[in-house]
């Protein structure tokens, strides 16, 4: 039970209390306590009970609930409210535009208990006529329901990863004499996973005998394919083949339809090949890793044989991270110490700017204090270096959150949009281009503001943005948070064509989130990003030269 898991339960309890119309003062106390716990420098689960009860802002009643969560994994008060809440009402909590009080009105006054009921009420224009809603909110609800329906049965790569790896090991244990190799979308490192696929020499009968249980149900068994449903959620597909055709089946199931159709149009697959390398060699094509086998253009313009595709171990600096000076959980010292232990050469500290008040964004005086502290740390930590940066909000008019006198004090500036995300393309482009043309913008952060399977990003003309970044010497972030992975890897090729540098950044708010880099690397590989074009793969010396040259090009040196 880490701080985030405990805070999530308290936050959920607060929302459910509001949905049930319970005491608003008590519900707010749980919400504020959740926020307090997320900001604690250490794990509250390791604190003595008396220390938990003495934390400022945590009363005795809430403190006892926290202790109950730590000891049992949950709290009875929350479970009681969940049991009293229809499943459809719980699902409404994920709908954009619906807060707890609006859900209370829908449920208690209109009798709406399911998403289908809600969608029907929107279609009949009932929701728009309710006080506090209106047509705009009704339209957002409809859009959010449609988005949820489209996302159903889909999972983030990072969410499917642990299960995929553990299940692969289980398969080898229960059928040790049979071959298994994971394939499909997971092997291609797609950011969204709808099925987990394996190629196997096990028979359908052997798989069913070992796997079909109450939690693992049979969906399909035909034409050399067995499909199971894991706990009514994730589909597991098994492509059944023999030893002779294992490599061919692995190759074909590791290609997108687009790629495979192009391959079959121009090449004959060697069905006797012992491995995928032989398949490519027989066709006279340089080996193409599974993660690149996505579009037909890859075959039309193949990667150079010795291209230095970015890898996790080629990332030398951690760019874009938040400390407890804003909304991060760890001190700057802790972050630097962890990175030194991992062999990194530098840290780019990018706390939030003042407009992000909800994230304790830094005002000008606090920036001065942080910069002084970083100078002191750099003297102690050399040759490791901490760079002074900021994740500066792009305001509604396209201006940045600080003026030039403040921006000039940073080693580099990452600019991002965090507010008023519901906007048309014209507005989004005006804001983004305003930031790109500002000479102090070094890196454009999470370009579209999307949250995968949660919300669409605001509409962006990627080509125009990339062209502008090329003109104004602005790099583009590949935000490695597995919920973002933004800029989308499908635009990496165009960015490289325009000679725009990219930067795989974890957007870390805890030391544990340093590992987000992995997910950024996986999608960057799909786009063919090389270490030479990834800023976070620069050595400390290369990074310092990059900053110096960028400032000279922008005329701010």
Can you put this structure into words, describing what you see?
This protein is of the alpha/beta class and 557 residues long. Helix content is 45%, strand content 12%. It has 24 helices and 14 strands. It has helices spanning 3-19, 24-38, 49-54, 60-72, 76-84, 87-92, 100-109, 115-123, 134-151, 157-174, 184-187, 204-211, 246-253, 257-266, 276-283, 297-300, 332-341, 364-381, 404-407, 425-436, 462-471, 492-497, 517-526, 540-554; strands at 155-156, 180-183, 192-193, 195-200, 216-222, 225-230, 234-240, 317-321, 346-352, 385-393, 414-416, 443-444, 475-479, 502-505. A seven-stranded parallel β-sheet has the order 8-9-10-11-12-13-14. Strand 5 and strand 6 form a beta hairpin. Helix 1 runs antiparallel to helix 2 and helix 1 packs parallel to helix 7. The model has no long low-confidence stretch (mean pLDDT 94).
Summarize the structure.
45% of the residues lie in helices and 12% in strands.
Keywords:
557 residues; alpha/beta; 7-stranded parallel beta sheet; 5-stranded mixed beta sheet; 24 helices; 45% helix
Distance between the termini: 48 Å
Class from helix and strand fractions? alpha/beta
The overall pLDDT, averaged over residues, is 94
Helix tally equals 24
Shape: globular
Give the amount of beta strand, in percent. 5-15%
Relative helix content: 40-55%
Biggest β-sheet strands, sense, barrel:
7 strands, parallel
Oligomer: single chain
Which regions contain 5 or more consecutive residues with pLDDT less than 50? none
The neighbouring-strand order within the major sheet is 8-9-10-11-12-13-14
Radius of gyration over all CA atoms, rounded:
26 Å
β-strand number: 14
């Amino acid at each position: 039970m880490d701080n985030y898991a405990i805070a999530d339960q308290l936050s959920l309890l607060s929302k459910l209390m509001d949905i049930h119309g319970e005491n608003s003062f008590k519900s707010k106390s749980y919400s504020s306590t959740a926020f307090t716990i997320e900001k604690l420098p250490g794990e509250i689960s390791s604190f003595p009970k008396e220390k938990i009860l003495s934390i400022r802002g945590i009363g005795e009643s809430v403190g006892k609930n926290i202790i109950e969560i730590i000891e049992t994994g949950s709290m009875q008060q929350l479970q009681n409210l969940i049991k009293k809440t229809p499943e459809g009402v719980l699902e409404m909590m994920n709908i954009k535009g619906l807060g707890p009080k609006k859900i209370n009105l829908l449920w208690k006054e209109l009798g709406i208990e399911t998403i289908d009921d809600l969608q029907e009420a929107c279609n009949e224009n009932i929701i728009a006529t309710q006080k506090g809603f209106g047509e705009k909110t009704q339209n957002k609800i409809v859009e959010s329901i449609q988005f949820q329906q489209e996302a159903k049965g889909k999972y983030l790569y990072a969410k499917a990863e642990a299960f995929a790896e553990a299940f692969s090991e289980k398969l080898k244990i229960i059928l040790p004499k049979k071959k298994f190799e994971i394939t499909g979308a997971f092997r291609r490192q797609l950011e969204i996973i709808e099925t987990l696929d394996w190629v196997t020499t096990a028979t359908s009968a052997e798989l069913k005998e070992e796997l079909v249980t109450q939690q693992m149900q049979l969906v399909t068994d035909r034409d050399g394919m067995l499909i199971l449903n894991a706990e009514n959620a994730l589909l597991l597909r098994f492509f059944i083949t023999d030893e002779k055709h294992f490599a061919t089946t692995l190759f074909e199931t590791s290609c997108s339809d687009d790629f495979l159709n192009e391959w079959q149009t121009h090449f004959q697959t060697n069905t006797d090949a012992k491995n995928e390398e032989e398949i490519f060699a027989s066709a006279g094509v340089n080996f193409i890793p599974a993660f690149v086998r996505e579009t037909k253009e890859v075959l039309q313009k193949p990667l150079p044989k010795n291209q230095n595709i970015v890898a996790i171990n080629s990332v030398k600096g951690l760019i874009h991270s938040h400390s407890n000076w804003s909304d991060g959980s760890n001190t700057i010292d802790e972050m630097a110490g962890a990175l030194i232990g991992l062999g990194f050469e530098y840290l780019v500290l990018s706390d939030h700017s003042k407009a992000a008040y909800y994230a304790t964004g830094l005002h000008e005086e606090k920036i001065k204090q942080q910069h002084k502290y970083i100078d002191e740390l750099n003297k102690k930590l050399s040759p490791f270096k901490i760079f002074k940066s900021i994740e500066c909000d792009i305001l509604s008019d396209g201006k940045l959150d600080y003026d030039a006198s403040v921006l000039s004090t940073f080693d580099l500036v990452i600019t991002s949009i965090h507010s008023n995300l519901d906007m048309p393309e014209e507005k989004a482009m005006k804001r983004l281009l305003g930031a790109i043309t500002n000479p102090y913008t070094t890196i454009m952060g999470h370009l579209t503001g999307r949250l995968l399977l949660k919300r669409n990003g605001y509409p962006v003309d990627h080509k125009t943005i990339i062209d502008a970044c090329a003109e104004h010497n602005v790099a583009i972030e590949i935000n490695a948070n597995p919920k973002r992975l933004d800029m989308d890897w499908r635009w990496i090729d165009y960015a490289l064509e325009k000679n725009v540098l990219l930067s795989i950044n974890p957007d870390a708010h805890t030391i544990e989130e340093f590992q987000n880099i992995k997910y950024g690397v996986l999608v960057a590989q799909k786009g063919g990003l090389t270490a030479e074009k990834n800023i976070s793969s620069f050595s400390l010396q290369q990074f310092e030269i990059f900053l110096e040259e960028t400032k000279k090009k922008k005329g701010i040196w």
